[in-house]
Write a structure and sequence with these properties.
The chain is an alpha/beta fold. The chain contains ten helices and 16 strands. Helix 3 (110-122) packs parallel to helix 4 (139-147).
Amino acid sequence: MFSKKLSRVAIAGIGVALMGVAACGGSDSGSSTSSSSSATGGDTSSESSAATSSSASSSASTGTGGEGGTIAIITVDPSNPYWKAEVDTAVAKATELGYTTTTSAHKNDPDEQQRLMETAINAKVSGILLDPAGAEESIAIVQRATDAGIPVALVNAEINETGIAVAQIVSNNAQGATIGAEAWSEAMNYTGTYVELFGNPSDNNAQVRSDGYEAVISQYPDLQKVGEEIANWDRQEGQEKMEALLSAHPDITGVIAGNDEMALGAINAIKAANKIDQIKVLGFDGNQDAVNAVKAGEMVATVVQPIVEGTNLAVEQLDSFIRTGSTGASEEKQAIDCVLITTENADTVNNFVISS
């Protein structure tokens, strides 16, 4: 069970019906190249994301002398703004703590993840920060690193085992889905037909968010789901799947999406169909494009995942374990609450960080 940590911005009056855990949405050539402290990745435009996601991501940066050795940072796909923030934060924190870093991305491919992890193990890195490619699929390779004496901290997504990784730090996805679904249901006036864009099925976050949405929406019998498609956290897939859903269900009035990239793809399709004023869209992650869509009235709400806070915490706990043999945390699995973003507070968000 995850221990629950409060995010910097509290939302009063929200009861959390579910306490599920576990995020949102490149592989590399196997070599690391020298770079500055920012990780390889695309910008927040869909064009840049598409271009970057077609290739692997790998880079290295040097900390202040690298006294602590090397931390390998293995993430999903930095062409997605969410994972880019994860990588950039991890590199900056590890560098601040005196480590050299390498970064690479597996694009949710367990085989590529295994190759990247084995490269890090063979390099005898001091520690590994991993955003895992599948809750079940990642267990064996995390165990292999641990058996080799290399501590692994997980961030953003969990694995279905404890006692292997030194820490598993994720967003409270059930709580985030609950507050997002409540805001969206209210915007729908608790009536209408809607469709859902589902994330990558191998990621526990996809099901947790979907279940969280359902737990809220099922309380309103006049809200009826008429279609669902898997869009794998991707903006382009979200657009294509939304086009198909609009063709099959032209009169829908709502869309719920498991992450912002799929939601933004849906908005592109909805705009092309000249229905942006008729369809209410819910996102999840809090990337800046989504926040801007909320400001523009194109998205009802998004839910900011505290990825910067969570990544900093994961690197700090990994560093603590490397130095002392303990993370200092009371539990391995830890969840941090998400924050609802609407037009009322969208101006406070800047690249996943919420100002007070």
